[in-house]
């Protein structure tokens, strides 16, 4: 024992560094002598009370930091400090509460790393202990530890900016830092890698749950480790043989943990690791680790059985298989990677070696991982797995099937084998044939198929028919489903021949999922014992099995003809229907959203798949087997207590949607509601003829309840859901209007807030118009307001939601941005429906709709709809270059339609705004009246019709228009006259009509359902085709062209009638007509009309219109028969009407023929009145010579007499005697007096005949 005589101080400078008192040994302190490790004598002195043992360790660290340089004399100090750091690391690791107390020690680790890592001969053991200490500290303080360590210069760092995509990571430059220098200069030459192993421990902290933020320091370190360590360690030297395996295991564990947790962003650690692994050469990375033969693997595993540790080689193979599975499951890019190319081309033997791991029975994780990798290889790589198996393919197949059939194998391995078989059936034909092993035999000319002895389907059917393996039932049924999906007819024939096949397969359909907290309703009919306690795993298996069965049965019903459906399946489905299976399954869809929403995600995902299967099952059942399921006829007397089957099913689906939406918001519940809404939409389309009108209103009333839950979702989640709901409501509302069933206003008004919310929140221009909820919402709103009679509650609801200003603002914003024309078109459709009502039109006018349709629309259309130049010619006429129709053309058409309806509804109230609109668009309106522009395309023709409609309404205020815009007034009149003559000319020429259609077809301006005009070979006996009826379906381009030209002709006549005396003016006129009020618009001649706009039209254009109407009337006349040539020398009034020939009862007219008949009568009626009025104006005019007027009277009288004779023949064929039962008037004045008997109660054709016949006689008397 030694005693201190003179006080001594230790660690004085070090204590000042730390702000502590030095270690002072006072007088009388005794020290005990100890014998050291090497025989030397050591003295143990007691520490003073002012200094703790932790302070002494900190002082030792500071002394080491102050020592420079390090040499052999400091090895003892380095060893003491290394031991101290390791001690502190273990203490903090076991008890984190000590971290604050030992902070003055752990913080020195940064200083030691910064000081010693840059030395020429760094102390690697000390640095490894410091990095390990920092790894422990980073578990609870990740960001601060990495940032501070990065400031020391130890870590690698990025020397370039991040690329825009992870595909360019190879171009990213990473500086090695002090760690890189230490690795190259110290660890690699020595063959020991303690610092690298410690760095892997530090990187493992970034893989902990909750570390979602990836720093630049972490990213650079991972890239450097993957490039310089993972891809190069196979070339390094190692002191110990186990060192290589330990480093490989450390790298594999880091890669495995990183791939599992960090795949959420383009530059996450998982994506970086995956990119590096997928792009590494074949001789590096994972492939050499997977080349270990299975025999060696079995030997290493057997050798390690007596120990408590696992062989590093076995663990490396297991981790490599898991990593390869993760890489192939979700690669960062869709392109084929270098790893996949190497597996397919350079190293196919590795695939065979992976498949041979099925022989390994020691560790089940290895064959499970190998099976998973083979499954991914079937999906991800363009290789034939069968060709990679080599000559041992049959032997390996037998091992796979034997392990699948075994009763002692783990279920996870069996599920993996079933998954491999499923993917092989879908994507690997040769491998599928190997496992399916179907045999064929022919007898009596028929080929029969059966399963071979080595077929995997024997084991699969054993699982399906056995009730003792419910976890394996879903993957087994999934394999069978893939057979139907891939149309493996030979296998399906073999399966159908198995006794009780359909009975075993459809067993899950008879057992709906049960949920303990629900009791069955009285209506459901579900037995009480079904509602027993079920675990989430059982529910998942039960729902997935039912889902696969529904898909199998649906595909069987879809592909097999109805009469040839298997008898066993038919009896099962009939029993399913008789036991209310559809109703039970519909109601079961209500429960999981309320009871399983808080349980595992797997249950919700399984329920989502079940909903998809049920949707497919019902859709196919209603389309292909309606009679089998009782969907062919509705209930004869539906009532609220006994609704019709379609209404019952749709009501259950609506309740299921409400139940899903009422649950806590999650992706599975929203997805399920979306699928159910799609099913509801499809069923409504299918059953719209079977839904009773009395129940449609109740269904519409439930949509507001569903939408109240939808508004809680964001736009991404609710987009498809809103689309399906709005489409379904639109279908139901259209059905109610077609059946003339009124829907309660409160139901429709309840949807207004949700429509407004959809318009505000859902904007996605990338989708098509039919897939956008905002456009479908506007279509529904247009249907809702179409038949409104009382606008008071509607305007109040619109005012509460500010809907009208919102609609106008939406149109204004998009017109200024010149985009989203589909939504503008949908909103204008709403305005068209509203403009027909006085209160709604006033609201639109006050909100400034016409101002939006003026300058904003004009500036937008100037950029979107420019006129095309003049390039080619029709026979004898020029034509403009075809301009492709766009949606902006529809916007312009609807704008004109809205303006015209507001002019008609509001009259003088809207006139100032309308005149401003006309002044803005006058050039475009007059350009639309050019016949060359009108016949460019069907869309241009519709634009012309809309322009004429607007002009016709505007000319009701002709005096104000003439005063405000005189040039436009005159130009519009001249254009309408030229257009009338040109259209009449085109309608009379068959060749011109056909040439126009062919020109449109050649330019690609016709719709897809265009059918070419008929040729002479397919015509009647005379070889002349009927251009009005033959080959002109409602959807053909020729019929659309003729109908559009007829509408244009009628509109032109209506416009010209504003400048011509009406029938009442002509009848009541006592003197000559006012020439200023009614000018002469046509030349007093009966010359054929032309398309040339420079030639002024004559009265021959009007007689041509009469001939067109007569031709239309003759073609659609059900009493049509061959008649003789009319005698022009006699008055048609003298033709005896009593000469009737017996005729058969007329056939009923089709809707198209009735429409054509109405158009014919309208053309004849308006043309006759206009012809009479303009003839009187010509006769009253002094601008023409008497000779011209007499010649005009003669020619016009002949034309009108011919017309009357032909019309009288048609009337006689209808067995009408109105033309002969009364004496024709003898004078013109008598013809237009009330005494003449022009009773307007007669048919319009008879009125036309009397007017024309009387006037023709008057002209003859004038002549």
Automatic annotation (TrEMBL):
GO terms for cellular component: nuclear pore inner ring. The keyword Acyltransferase does not apply. It is found in: Nucleus, Nuclear pore complex. GO terms for molecular function: structural constituent of nuclear pore. It comes from Geodia barretti. Residues 509-531, 1119-1159 are annotated as: Disordered. Keywords: mRNA transport, Nuclear pore complex, Nucleus, Protein transport, Translocation, Transport. Residues 1126-1146 have a biased composition (Low complexity). Residues 52-438 form the Nucleoporin Nup188 N-terminal subdomain III domain. It comes from the Eukaryota. PANTHER family: NUCLEOPORIN NUP188, NUCLEOPORIN NUP188 HOMOLOG. This is Nucleoporin NUP188.
């Amino acid at each position: 024992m030694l005693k201190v005589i003179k006080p001594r101080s230790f660690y004085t400078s070090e204590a000042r560094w730390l702000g502590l008192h030095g270690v002072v040994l006072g007088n009388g302190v005794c020290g005990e002598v100890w014998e050291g490790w090497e025989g030397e004598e050591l003295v143990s002195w007691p520490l003073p009370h002012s200094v703790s043992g932790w302070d002494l360790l900190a002082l030792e660290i500071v002394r080491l930091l102050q020592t420079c340089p390090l040499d052999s004399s400091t090895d003892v100090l380095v060893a003491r400090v290394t031991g101290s750091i390791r001690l502190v690391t273990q203490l903090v690791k076991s008890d984190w509460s000590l971290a604050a107390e030992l902070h003055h020690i752990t913080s020195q680790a940064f200083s030691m790393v910064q000081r010693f890592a840059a030395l020429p001969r760094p102390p690697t053991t000390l640095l490894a202990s410091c990095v390990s200490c920092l790894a422990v500290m980073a578990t609870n303080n990740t960001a601060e530890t990495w940032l501070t360590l990065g400031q020391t210069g130890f870590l690698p760092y990025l020397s370039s900016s991040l690329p825009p995509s992870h595909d360019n990571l190879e171009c990213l430059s990473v500086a090695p830092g002090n760690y890189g220098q230490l690795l190259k200069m110290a660890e690699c030459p020595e063959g020991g890698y303690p610092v690298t192993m410690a760095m892997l421990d530090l990187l493992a902290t970034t893989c902990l749950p909750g570390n979602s933020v990836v720093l630049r320091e972490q990213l650079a370190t991972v890239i450097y480790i993957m490039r310089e360590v993972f891809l190069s360690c196979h070339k390094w030297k190692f002191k110990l043989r186990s060192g290589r395996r330990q480093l490989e295991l450390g790298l594999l564990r880091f890669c495995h943990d990183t791939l599992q947790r960090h795949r959420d962003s383009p530059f996450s650690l998982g994506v970086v690791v995956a990119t590096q692994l997928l792009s590494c050469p074949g001789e590096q990375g994972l492939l050499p680790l997977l080349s270990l033969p299975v025999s060696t693997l079995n030997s290493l595993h057997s050798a390690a059985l007596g120990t408590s540790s696992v062989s590093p080689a076995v663990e490396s193979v297991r981790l490599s298989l898991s990593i390869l599975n993760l890489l192939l499951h979700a690669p960062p890019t869709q392109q084929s990677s270098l790893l996949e190319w190497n597996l397919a081309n350079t190293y196919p033997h590795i695939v065979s070696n992976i498949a041979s791991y099925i022989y390994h029975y020691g560790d089940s994780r290895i064959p499970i991982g190998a099976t998973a990798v083979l499954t991914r290889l079937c999906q991800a790589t363009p290789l034939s797995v069968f060709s990679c198996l080599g000559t041992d393919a049959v032997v390996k197949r037998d091992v796979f099937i034997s392990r699948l059939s075994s009763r002692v194998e783990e279920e996870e391995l069996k599920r993996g084998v079933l998954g491999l078989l499923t993917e092989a059936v879908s994507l690997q034909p040769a491998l599928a044939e190997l496992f399916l092993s179907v045999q064929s035999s022919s007898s009596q000319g028929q080929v029969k198929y059966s399963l071979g002895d080595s077929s995997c389907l024997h084991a699969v059917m054993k699982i399906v028919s056995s009730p003792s393996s419910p976890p394996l039932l879903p993957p087994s049924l999934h394999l069978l489903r893939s057979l139907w999906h891939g149309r493996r007819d030979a296998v399906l024939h073999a399966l159908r021949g198995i006794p009780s096949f359909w009975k075993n397969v459809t067993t899950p359909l008879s057992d709906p999922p049960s949920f303990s907290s629900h009791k069955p309703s009285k209506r459901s009919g579900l037995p009480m014992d079904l509602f027993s306690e079920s675990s989430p795993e059982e529910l998942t298996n039960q729902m997935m099995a039912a889902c696969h069965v529904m898909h199998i049965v649906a595909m069987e019903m879809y592909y097999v003809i109805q009469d040839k459906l298997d008898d066993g399946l038919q009896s099962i489905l009939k029993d399913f229907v008789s036991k209310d299976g559809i109703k039970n399954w519909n109601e079961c869809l209500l429960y999981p959203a309320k009871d399983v929403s808080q349980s595992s995600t797997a249950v919700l995902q399984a329920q989502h798949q079940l909903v998809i299967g049920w949707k497919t099952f019902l859709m196919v059942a209603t389309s292909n087997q309606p009679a089998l399921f009782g969907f062919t006829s509705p209930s004869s007397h539906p009532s609220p207590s006994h609704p019709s089957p379609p209404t019952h099913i749709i009501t259950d689906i609506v309740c299921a949607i409400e139940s899903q939406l009422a649950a806590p918001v999650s992706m599975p519940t929203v997805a399920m509601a979306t699928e159910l809404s799609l099913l509801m939409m499809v069923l409504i389309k299918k059953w719209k003829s079977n839904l009773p009108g009395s129940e449609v209103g109740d269904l519409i009333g439930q949509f507001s309840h569903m939408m109240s839950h939808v508004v809680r979702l964001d736009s991404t989640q609710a987009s498809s859901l809103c689309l399906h709901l709005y489409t379904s409501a639109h279908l139901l509302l259209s059905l109610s209007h077609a059946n003339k069933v009124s829907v309660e206003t409160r139901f429709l008004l309840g949807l207004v807030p949700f429509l407004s919310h959809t318009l505000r929140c859902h904007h996605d221009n990338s989708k098509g118009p039919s897939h956008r909820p905002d456009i479908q919402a506007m279509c529904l709103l247009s249907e809702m307001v179409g038949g409104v009679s009382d606008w008071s509650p509607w305007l109040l609801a619109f005012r509460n939601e500010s809907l009208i200003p919102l609609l106008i603002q939406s149109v204004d914003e998009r017109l200024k941005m010149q985009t989203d024309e589909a939504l503008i078109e949908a909103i204008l459709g709403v305005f068209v429906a509203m403009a027909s009502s006085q209160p709604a039109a006033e609201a639109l006018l006050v909100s400034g709709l016409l101002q939006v349709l003026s300058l904003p629309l004009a500036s937008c259309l100037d950029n979107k709809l420019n006129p095309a130049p003049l390039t080619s010619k029709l026979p004898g006429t020029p034509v403009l270059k075809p301009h492709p129709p766009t949606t902006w053309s529809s916007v312009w058409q609807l704008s004109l339609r809205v303006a015209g309806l507001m002019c008609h509804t509001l009259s003088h109230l809207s006139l100032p705004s309308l005149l401003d609109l006309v002044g803005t668009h006058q050039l475009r309106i007059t350009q639309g009246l050019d016949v060359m522009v009108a016949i460019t395309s069907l869309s241009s023709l519709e634009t012309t019709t809309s322009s004429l409609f607007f002009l016709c309404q505007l000319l009701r205020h002709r005096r104000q228009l003439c005063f405000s815009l005189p040039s436009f007034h005159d130009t519009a009149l001249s254009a309408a006259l030229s257009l009338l003559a040109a259209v009449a000319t085109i309608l009379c020429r068959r060749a011109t009509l056909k040439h126009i259609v062919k020109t449109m077809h050649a330019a690609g301006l016709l719709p897809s359902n265009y059918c070419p005009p008929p040729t002479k070979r397919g015509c009647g006996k005379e070889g002349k085709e009927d251009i009005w009826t033959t080959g002109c379906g409602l959807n053909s381009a020729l019929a659309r062209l003729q109908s559009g030209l007829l509408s244009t002709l009628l509109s032109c006549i209506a416009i010209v009638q504003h400048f011509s005396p009406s029938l009442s003016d002509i009848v009541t006129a006592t003197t000559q007509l006012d020439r200023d009020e009614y000018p002469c618009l046509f030349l007093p001649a009966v010359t054929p009309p032309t398309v040339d706009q420079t030639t002024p039209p004559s009265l021959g254009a009007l007689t041509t219109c009469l001939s067109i109407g007569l031709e239309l009337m003759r073609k659609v006349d059900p009493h049509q028969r061959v008649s003789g040539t009319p005698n022009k020398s006699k008055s048609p009034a003298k033709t005896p009407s009593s000469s009737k020939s017996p005729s058969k009862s007329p056939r009923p007219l089709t809707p198209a023929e009735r429409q054509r008949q109405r158009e014919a009568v309208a053309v004849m009626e308006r043309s006759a009145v206009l012809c009479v009025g303009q003839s009187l104006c010509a006769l009253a005019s002094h601008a023409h010579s008497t000779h011209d007027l007499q010649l005009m009277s003669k020619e016009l009288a002949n034309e009108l007499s011919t017309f009357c004779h032909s019309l009288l023949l048609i009337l006689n064929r209808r067995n009408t005697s109105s033309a002969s039962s009364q004496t024709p008037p003898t004078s013109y004045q008598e013809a237009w007096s009330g005494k003449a008997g022009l009773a307007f109660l007669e048919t319009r054709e008879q009125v036309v005949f009397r007017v024309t016949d009387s006037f023709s006689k008057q002209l003859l008397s004038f002549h």
